[in-house]
């Protein structure tokens, strides 16, 4: 049996290295995107909770109320950019930090909280029976 030798030029090694590099880039981008989405959600939650905290402490004055919003933002690892008042509503804006890519803004969010408005007077509510077909009106009286 003749010994056949096939020259191995290492082409498979090069293709494998390129595939591994491409998968590494894709995985890194996916992880960065996931971190950015999580930071955005954290910023939205912090803005909502900060505005609610400020509104709940409005009776203590705007400075104390905004200190409470800053306390909430600090606990949620975001930066409070603004806390201001528009009539009785607290307006809060926060910014989260993420692994940065040059040129892209940091995730931010804003929220508003204040006293609930008095519901408007309207016609009586109409409900339906348990089959959903016959309207049932409240008795007049």
If helices are DSSP runs of H or I spanning 4 or more residues, what is the number of helices?
2
Largest sheet, in brief, is: 3 strands, antiparallel
Give the strand tally: 5
Q: So what's the oligomer here?
A: single chain
Write the topology of this structure:
Blueprint: H1 11-56, H2 62-75, E1 78-86, E2 89-96, E3 108-113, E4 127-128, E5 135-136
Antiparallel strand pairs: 1-2, 2-3, 4-5
Helix pairs in contact: 1-2
Description:
This protein is α+β, with helices and mostly antiparallel strands and 141 residues long. The chain has a domain at 25-115. It has two helices and five strands; from the N terminus they run ααβββββ. The strands form two sheets. It has a three-stranded antiparallel sheet, with helices on one face. Strands 4-5 form a two-stranded antiparallel ribbon. A hairpin with a 6-residue loop joins strand 4 (127-128) and strand 5. The termini are far apart.
């Amino acid at each position: 049996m003749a010994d056949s030798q096939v020259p191995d030029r290492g082409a498979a090694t090069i293709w494998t290295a390129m595939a591994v590099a491409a998968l590494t880039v894709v995985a890194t981008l996916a992880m960065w995107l996931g971190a950015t989405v999580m930071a955005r959600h954290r910023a939205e939650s912090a803005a909502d909770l900060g505005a609610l905290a400020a509104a709940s402490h409005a009776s203590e004055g705007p400075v104390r109320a905004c200190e409470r919003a800053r306390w909430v933002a600090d606990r949620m690892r975001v930066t409070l950019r603004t806390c201001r008042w528009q009539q009785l509503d607290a307006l809060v804006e926060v910014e989260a930090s993420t692994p940065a890519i040059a040129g892209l803004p940091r995730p931010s969010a804003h929220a508003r909280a204040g006293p609930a408005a008095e519901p408007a007077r309207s016609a009586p509510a109409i409900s339906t029976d348990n089959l959903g077909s016959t309207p049932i009106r409240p008795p007049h009286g």
